[in-house]
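Box 3.1. Reading complex inputs
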Amino acid sequence: MLLTYDAFREAVEDDDRRRSLLFEDDHPRYVLFAQQFSRVDLVRLSASATAIRRMDRHRDGVGFLRSILSGKRVLNLFAQPSTRTNESFVAAAEKVGATVRVVSDLRTSSFAKGETVEDSVRTLSSFYDLLVSRHPDDDFATRAAWALRRSRRPIPVVSAGSGKSEHPTQALLDVYTLQYSFAERGGLDGKRVLLVGDIGRNRAARSLALLLTRFEVRRLDVACFPGHGPDPALVQALERARIELVTHDSLPKAVQTLGKELDAVYVTRLQQEWDTGAGKLGTSEDFVLAWDLRHHLREDCVIMHPLPRVNELPDEWEAHPGFVVWRQVRNGMWMRAALLADIHGATDEIMARARRLGVA
Amino acid sequence: MLLTYDAFREAVEDDDRRRSLLFEDDHPRYVLFAQQFSRVDLVRLSASATAIRRMDRHRDGVGFLRSILSGKRVLNLFAQPSTRTNESFVAAAEKVGATVRVVSDLRTSSFAKGETVEDSVRTLSSFYDLLVSRHPDDDFATRAAWALRRSRRPIPVVSAGSGKSEHPTQALLDVYTLQYSFAERGGLDGKRVLLVGDIGRNRAARSLALLLTRFEVRRLDVACFPGHGPDPALVQALERARIELVTHDSLPKAVQTLGKELDAVYVTRLQQEWDTGAGKLGTSEDFVLAWDLRHHLREDCVIMHPLPRVNELPDEWEAHPGFVVWRQVRNGMWMRAALLADIHGATDEIMARARRLGVA
Amino acid sequence: MLLTYDAFREAVEDDDRRRSLLFEDDHPRYVLFAQQFSRVDLVRLSASATAIRRMDRHRDGVGFLRSILSGKRVLNLFAQPSTRTNESFVAAAEKVGATVRVVSDLRTSSFAKGETVEDSVRTLSSFYDLLVSRHPDDDFATRAAWALRRSRRPIPVVSAGSGKSEHPTQALLDVYTLQYSFAERGGLDGKRVLLVGDIGRNRAARSLALLLTRFEVRRLDVACFPGHGPDPALVQALERARIELVTHDSLPKAVQTLGKELDAVYVTRLQQEWDTGAGKLGTSEDFVLAWDLRHHLREDCVIMHPLPRVNELPDEWEAHPGFVVWRQVRNGMWMRAALLADIHGATDEIMARARRLGVA
């Protein structure tokens, strides 16, 4: 059944219809939205990420991991530069044995000669077994998935960030980091998270908020830059999940008010690259997590940031027991490795081997 | 015996003298021109490409393939951007076990510091076992082959396109696709092919025409853009091979005239990037293979295009049984893998293993 | 013990204190300066480089070599373009089984978003096991080493050239080439070397001079471009090592004077890229090793050049028995492979295997 692009797009944006298009035999084939993942998916992926991380320390484990996607070739098509996400995907793919090539400058491809995006993507994909796509257009990854799905070589597609709205693997790694941090405190259910920054435009914060609806979270606190609160779609999604949304207009005030009740503070930077005429980089003190604020927080309050940071999360926080920012970076690699393996239906195999090696 | 560059160039352009310089023990060492290959070479390479393609589907086959050039390091020196050809070579080399590095921006090398081309090529080549070269200069690959041949590490050189005239591996993949498409109809001998476009400047079309002289082709039809007919050297080569050259001034008229007699139509785009002051991209309807024209053609008429395409081969053709454009793309990878293996004298080994695996 | 950057920098620049910071269990962990290596280090690394070079010719040897750093991932962070050094490091790392990624355009990373250098380096390093750094700033590699040393993943750092002053691996390969060339003449001790060019700004020449202090060299001749003699620190280091420094103001005159006494002539080019308003490339004849000068030199006088060259070492020298310029290029790869292995404490293993294969 060949859908038109518009019909495909409408279907994958519909909570009830997307799974049949984006998943196959209950594992993902096209990874376009954070919210395409169910709680079961998130738990499975997190367990696999931990298994992979632990196996990577064993010589036997390393050899097994590299056999998982051995011979598979991954194309990172990064039209929008992002060294950080790119390197994370490359490392992830190599950990599970795939080889990766990065194509970043589409001007050197045939787009410039009048070729359609569909032809370019199909041509490049001819040489690969999986496409990781990063693009400034909101619907590039969706369009690539649609074009490839119609072709005779319908390879999987993973969005590594499309436009301002979607960054599904960032949300996966953040959920994983939270679950991991709360492992001895019953997991994410019932936890209280404060998201800071530009919730409407920061893909990381927005996607994380959407994934929190998969857990028994009753309330979400957000401290938003003026004029950058949650968008209507996000508000609606939280309402449907019966999560109370509480908005604060200052981070210090929010921390002072919520204090020891907070289980995690997720700080982000002001996304100034989207603004025209932006002044100097950095965030006003209303949205800086000053080191002094630690006195209001619990010692085990988790401190996260998707990076890069400017001034909003000072260096001193490295000394705080809950500071997991560098762990987030590494978790991105483990979670993406788990995702690539899951796409190929290898998660059961990973968990079985991890149990045998005693690290599951 | 150290030839000067001019003597080397003259010798390799001479049909009678080139083989002793470009081949070694009857397998190619320097791949500079489509016309350096004999019919025997073409048949051997095509059989190997098919064997490689089939083995790539078997787990045992994949392991064997990756052992062929294991430990070899390939340098793709692409001074002229071409993501498509580059990725095809990278995939080909990796399929047979080599590792590949791409150097595309020669400005970051030492050319800018006053170094000669010969020094730059020799320095870079010091770290590699084979050079794949793409360059806007007509004689870059030939000059690189000459310089390396004189050195103490005379690694093989493969041209991936030099200037406007040579693109030997594109011609190899096109011949392979034709032979493959005609496999059950007696191969290329006696077939009637219509080449469309800028025969003088389109390296793909031009090189393919030269290779058709290796088969029992009696007649070649070309539909040429005005002012862009075959160049004198090509006309002469066809004459020597006793191939009647028939020129048409419109693709629709040619198709209407030749109709069911045609075994293949090879469409190309107008090479506007060579023109100064080119207007909008695209081809006038005189050289578009409109979908309506299918009624004049046989169902099994092969439809090819080297890509990228603009408007000259509309999307509807994907539904035609003879449409093999995406197969061409994949065939490029298989043929280049066969070529890299052949350069290393591995073709016998490939055919023997393919027979043992039952896929030869 | 967490040092401030200034304290770290001061310590590593001090001949007596640096070893405890840059080495671990007597193998290097941070490679920042040529002069951090002792004679014992240089002899060990040279022997290992030779063993690796010889093993690379054996099928068994190749397999062993690739097992040494198997699974390790190397990041070449090359903010300053240098295809030559970059490719040498990539080849070296791959020879000993590591995989390498090159990040060259830091503008595509998050520096542009206001991130600190420390955050960028730590983030990128999160995905890698070793950092090779090339940067126009004199202290970039030192700063990266300091930042990583403080972190929870203190991966090794190798400078591939920082600013104008340091290029430690070039010095290692030059010392190796000299030792190798003098293998049957008792090694570097007692040899007489003439360094030509911009001793103050040419990192290669300067670092080599510093390493000569590790051998029983009594006298060092330098033929310097006007105004580009040795800097005070170099003069002082030579004095401390009791090496007599003899300065010449013309290469031809130096060769005519020293003649058959010379064991090696190390030619370099004028570093015009550092000059503003530089005229045409090339060196005046006062610093060109004209082919006629060969009559003054011994047949076994070693002729070296770090490349790229402009006009200062004419092509005819290729025919001279002592011309080892292309061997220098290959030696760079072997020496860097030896260094990467040594950093991981693998040198004993390499020498043991080489003895078993009969190539030590």
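In summary: The longest strand of chain C covers residues 73-78.
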